[in-house]
Amino acid sequence: MFAEFLQYLFSGVTIGATYALVALGFTLVYNASHVINFAQGEFLMIGGMSTVSLLAMGVPLPLAIAMAVALAAVLGVALHKLAIAPARKADVITLIIITIGASIFLRGLAQIIWGKEFHAMPSFSATESVNVLGAVMYTQSLWVLAVAGVLVLLLALFFTRTLMGKAILATSMNPGAARLMGIRTQFVLMLAFMLAAVLGAMAGIMVAPVTLTAYDIGIMLGLKGFVAAAIGGMGSGVGAVVGGLLLGIAEAMTAGYISSDYKDAVAFLLILVILFFMPRGLFGARVAERV
Amino acid sequence: MVTKNRSPYRAVLLILLLICGMVAPAMAAEPIRIGALVSATGPASFLGDPELKTLEMYVERINASGGVIGRPLRLFHYDDGGNANEARNFANRLLRSDRVDLVIGGSTTGTTMAAVPLVERAGRPMISMAGALVITDPVRPWVFKTPQSDRMAAERVLADMQSRGITGIGLISGTDGFGRSGREQTLAVAADFGIQVLADQTYGPQDTDMTAQLTRIRNTPGVQAVFNFGFGQGPAIVTRNYAHLGIELPFYQSHGVASDRFLDLAGSAAEGVRLPASALLVPDALPDDDPQKQVVQDYKAAYEARWNVSVSTFGGYAYDALMLAVAAIEAAGSTEPEAVRSALEQIQGHVGVTGIFNMSPDDHNGLAPESFRLLEVRDGQWVLVD
Prior knowledge:
The structure holds two protein chains of two kinds. Chain A has helices at 2-33, 40-56, 61-84, 92-114, 139-161, 163-173, 175-180, 185-211, 217-232, 237-258, 263-277; strands spanning 129-132, 135-138. By secondary structure, chain A is mainly alpha-helical. Residues 23-27 of chain B have low confidence and may be disordered. The chains are: A mainly alpha, B alpha/beta.
């Protein structure tokens, strides 16, 4: 009985950690610009797919990961420079629509380059699973959790301890004042896109051995990441992590104890209930809009 | 001088006349108009793409060797992108403006069913390349199909379970059309084999983790084997989860994943998995006295030489559809629709890539469950079990 519960918990936490990383990517860009970057899921796909191709070319795993993350970072900067920056005078809504367009473009490109098939990536460790109190855990899950933990910690340090992190926060609070203080807000925004791309790519690479990867894997993972970010409160780092884990665990428990048919329904029910009682999400800033 | 000038002119004229004389008989024979409705792009392109390649290749080959009943074949093909509305439009165009003698397609059950009312009204034979039972059950006079139905796949698997003495199984299926239909067929016929479905779980086509469902199946008392009816990457993930959970029970997959792609995705987790599949997957493992061996080997070799990609089961459906059409037209001696239709219905012992077709007025598919070969994965390879 307990082993069963533990089994559901493990699969929930693994997928939840991925959602959390995607949600953090959303949070970063949202904080810097109030734009919801719907191309976030595509960075997962690019991370996973390029690592798979590089491995197939015989590149060793650590180098392949580094190259895939670098590629995603370049694409994140390109997304900002080529699609967002030229429209910087436009409404937030327009920018959001631009990111949707960019996501469709990236997906189409990936389909042409890599084809439509799913690809498998080997686990990072030789032993594929370990037994914990009667439940089985993927060693890859441990990798996902460890990397997610480290990334969250680094981000927290970045925002609280570095000038650049504080500049991003300042830009999110008041772009006009930040600019007057000498912060190059466009540069900050570009940095946010780059970091979001790196986070997305890392999530995509970590989770690929568990979920497999394909050109369209970003749609569902991106959407779930967005749900996680909304549950946690858009713009809150802690909220993104809690929202992601909560969503993953809720899904796994529903599939386990009720029926897998209702798994996605529960995820979306969760967002309805939480936003009904707490319109700004669990950890959203409780500030009133200035009128 | 004048005559000297004219003589080369005359020679040229003579040669031209000769060429015309040689070409004339071939030109005179009205081509047989074959319509093809395939999903060459879009979500079902993995079906339509090899199908179209196969049709193009074999129409070329048949024409090079003199055509059918002395007439060349002409292929009219449209890509419906897997969309039923498009399929309906293109079926209309095939029947009305291209005035085809026979339709091959569609690639999916949805596109096939969209075209069915049109071919029935126009009174032209149609040979579908889609799987579901509804296409030929109940029998429609003008509609035939080449792939085995999902019920046969379920029967093949259940029969193997029965022979291993299994009486209780867990079923896990995808919630896409293929998985749902397969689940219904399995539930409908399980009792015929003395097998009870004790656990019945599903997963969404985009799901990335099925350990929760498999844990439930494992904890259901009385489950002696697990059957996964699904399609795409889902079954590969189920197989990986199955291995990770360390479930020791026999594990079966459906024909939906019968391709080398599945072995790549599932990796070592696929060891010991059994599934029903077309003979095309194991052409060299077939015994020498197997009537299909030659056909399957020839098709595989020809396809791979022409397109330089590995052969797929789905292309085999198109090969069979075209060859059945050719056989029926030859038997009828004309392209008169009713004659071709009744010739199709009378085809007996036609050896194809998918199986041996024995059509009848009550059976417009003509295949037996035995046309599925039962394969097992051993050392990362398909091995013929039965």
